Structures
1.
Amino acid sequence: MNLRTVLTPETVNLHLKGTTKEEIIDELLEVLIAAGKVSNKEAARECVLDRERKMSTGMKHGIAIPHGKTDTVSDLVACIGISDTPVDFDSLDQEPCRIFIMTLSPVNKTGPHLQFLAEVSLLFKSAEKREQILKTSDKAQVIKILTE
């Protein structure tokens, strides 16, 4: 799995405005729709919210990784959003989140989805990388920080 092939400047939003989990998920889906990556926003939204109902994707250190499996994509797609203000995402550490990475993958493909989630979760063990991502104002730089 190569994050550089999945993430592009068009799939990065540095200023999410949402104040709730649902609003953040909607904004991330809009990024994927605008980039031509998702064919049906409502169906994609339902699969992500369904996953959230089972267990929150709010991790630790201010990061959430909302994701789901849906027929609205033909291959794994992903986007990154940075929130201007912390958002309660029912995280494991009870801390609000500012960094959101959404991924959607086809229902019939498991490997790339699990590989992506594993790769992304490893990246965010670095406090330095998290800090760099929150400080940058350049979409391409966010991708560079993630993929170095």
2.
Amino acid sequence: MNLSYWEYKTWLSNVDFTIVGSGIVGLSCALRLKAKFPKANILILEQGMLPNGGSTKNAGFACFGSLSEIIDDLKSHSEEEVLQLVQKRYAGLQLLRENLGDKTIDYLPNKGFELFTNTDQVLYEQCLSRKEEINTLLQPIFKERVFTTQKNIFNFKNIQPQYMVNQFEGQIDTGKMMQGLLKKVQIAGIHILNNCSVTTIDDLNTSVEIKTDHFTFSTHKVLIATNGFASQLGIDRVKPARAQVLITKPIDGLHIKGSFHLDKGYYYFRNIDNRILFGGGRNLDFITEETTQLGQTQLVQHKLEQLLNETILPNIDFEIEHRWSGIMGVGNQKKAIVKQVSENTFCGVRLGGMGVAIGSIVGTELADLL
């Protein structure tokens, strides 16, 4: 790009901190840096027109893990590690609510419900038998029983007779949340350049040279907050994971209210604006969904529609209005990677599908590495 003197002088000169990625982590990091260094010149680079990973494409669940997810995590993590994961997610949700306010993000404490299909008999019985064990494990965080059971009040079909209910789970409006964060960043005088993909980060020890698809410039420090796209910038141990989502047209008299998990959290749905938003299904084909390409597949979309027809909205006429996908960052461990990469480069990535819950706190931790 043939930039003018004015463009270089105003946006690309004397940059103290450059943040790659304008999602929850990147914006939270920028706000924390501005609070710590009020006079700093902070620049955010974003490859999309809007945040291009998962921050504006998620389902808006204010959650920290369903009962079956926590039980599953205990197979590969110690009790202390699982407790730390849940604590961080819950603390991150409280930080998000404090930073923006419940009204701004349209937070609704509508509870979380985990459903089990008729073929999930073993998992269902396991969750029933271990429910109080997990409640005891989480007691230090919540001071109350987290998980209870409830009959099938929403008349779903082909599922076990009871839900597992999480009284501490809620919903947010993802778009309003990101608008709120962007507004705070803009008020703070932090610049964001969209449609700008970083191709190379070269740490020169005294500064960092950043090459994008439009220009090259120097900055003092770089903070990578691209989550599912982190491997493109040389961050190991992060794999992309595409999440496909659809939403119905408004449904008259929709009686479903809450955040719902199915099949260990691989499927999830909720009510919003008299519609059902439904996503998931990457477990049908992990290899294909390990991609940074946005889009849909017939395999996943067919399964989502089948579950809508047979389980979630049986005997209810509905139409699909919109489909999209987002990119998460996952790995062998669920703990986020927040570390120094080189002399002047840092990263906060691998949020494991819990960006809404831990994005604010990971962004803060990333800034605090400096």
3.
Amino acid sequence: MIKRDYRIPEKLSGSGRLVTKEIQQVIDECRDNGGGRVVIPRGEYHIASLMLYSDITLYLESGAKLTGSTDWQDYTDFHVPSTLAYRHSRRVIDAWNLPPHYFNAMITAVEAENVAIVGEEGSEINGSDCFDPNGEEKFRGPMGIVMCRCSDVTLRGYTFADSANWSHQLDSCFNVRIDHVTVLAGHDGFNVHHCTNVCIEDCQIKTGDDCIAGYDARNIYIRNCYMNTSCNAFRFGGVNLTVERCTVEGPGIYPHRVSGRHNLLYAFEYYSLQDDDIRENSGNWKISDCKFRNADGFIHYVFGDEREHQTNRPMEHVLVENCEITGLLKTSEYKGTEKTRGSIVFSNVSVGFREEAETTVFLEVDDTVRADMAGVRKEQESVVLVREAKKGGNR
């Protein structure tokens, strides 16, 4: 059965006033009639918080733009039953200044099935960089898109710009397909905490914060994406991460929102937050046929590092093959735990440093890690591929 379209009246565009209620009424009508497409025609529509439901596609035609309110008090969190356990940790709440309305968002879906946001070329969702003096870090506003416990999710084709907090916050979602989405400025691009079976393909992610983040994630596939950031390309912990045919490049076009810096810190920053539930050790990462340009360091994993939230469960195995790693500035670290003997293997990988680098040591490991560097080609004769340290050294 072909489900019908429900079009938003074009007369709602261009006035500058919020039309959240009118658009939500159309979404609710679509839900009450079994689902379908809610079509946003060309024009600019100012909104606060919308809720999507099962079997609904929010469809943005070319030239359609959803613009978020600049007043944080216009938004609601819909009492999202998030699976992010750190949300209830007093230590994290105090450290990050997490407000009760932490999950305010422009678009929310909770426990929905077969839900989608699809945009034609030239469509946009814009968070207006909404400032919230009571928000996270005392300035972050609402999230962009929040999806909690959803399954069979599709995100495709649109541009998300100027998110006031994470552009896409997905937690405990299952079977997620993201393709041809562009993220510009704002904070994190895609967060996939506790998610399973996520494929992100053919996306352009240019952010001031992490491009792709998440822990306790399973079966995550990143293919044919371009990433540019003033933080980390990946802040990640999970099982079965595949990164193929991607380009990661610094310095960031958009500044880091807190420090103002533009340097790309690491291509891969390990993430295993103590204040959340993580079911198993991370491992089985395969990084292949990628180019990494002008990151300060390639990978940072130091189990026990509290500052970088690497204290819950350790990493086991990483394979890097057929990759170019150029323009490094500092030494990467891969240091594990004596209870779990980790490994990192490089096969057909070229490594090079910037002229201004103060070191040419590529990787430092400790005696809990097996590092196989046989497949590394050095761009400079002075490069030292691996430096070994005793467990606990150089912390």
